[in-house]
Design brief:
homodimer; Arc Repressor Mutant, subunit A; three-stranded antiparallel sheet; 13% strand; alpha+beta; DNA-binding
Chain lengths: 104, 104
DNA sequence: TGCTTATATGACTATACAATCATATAGACA
DNA sequence: TGTCTATATGATTGTATAGTCATATAAGCA
């Protein structure tokens, strides 16, 4: 995080990983504790914990403690907008490639 | 690229790297050849070429050949929207941290 | 106090990535 | 044909990352 470009890249890099993308998608509807998140995405607790920590460190998620449980939530609405836009790009790319395949 | 989530993550990962973010930002105003790009972002030609190749492979950039030169351009308007949103998140994060610092 | 549950972390391994240097390819043109 | 220019690529190196297993921490409760 030495300069703005690196900071900005870190935010996008945090989202650019399948496990973390699954976490963010699962949190779309609101905050959840770790004990709900890791079974939902099918990853180990320790691995999920690391990714959650990274998402929080890069400003994607907020963290709230309640007794034993720790609740994570999407911190900025812009996060879901980015996720949705990247899916749009994916869909357009896949559609384009299928059209190419059909043309063969 | 085995499943949609990985595909989507690859798009975001492609944007989540400082050198590639600089390339995309430089292409905001329109297509440019490699010979314009690498001096503008201050990276070596070979390194720039690799990043351009990756950005094209992940569907971020389009590529056009004209004689000796190869022109790259932003392929989807959603790309710049993502870049702008990620900067908004960064600004909010930095602002929030500065407020915290002032409170100390 | 001791036990249980929820979450985090240390140590490790395998893999991926960015950058560099040298070199290859491919098109333009004399 | 030979030379020049633009771009890509092979080989290599150092570093970062994801995932796993075992263990630590910390809060709640009997």
């Amino acid at each position: 995080m030495n300069n703005p470009t690196e900071y900005q890249a870190d935010i996008l890099k945090a989202l650019g990983q399948p496990t973390r993308l699954k976490i963010v998608e699962f949190l779309r509807d609101g905050e959840r504790c770790v004990c709900e998140i890791f079974p939902a995405i099918g990853e180990e607790q320790s691995n999920t914990s690391r990714h959650l920590n990274m998402l929080q460190a890069s400003g994607i998620l907020s963290r709230r403690k309640d007794g034993l449980k720790i609740y994570y939530a999407i911190k900025h609405p812009e996060v879901m907008a980015i996720v949705d836009l990247s899916r749009q790009i994916m869909v357009q790319e896949i559609t384009g490639k299928n059209l190419l395949l059909q043309a063969v």
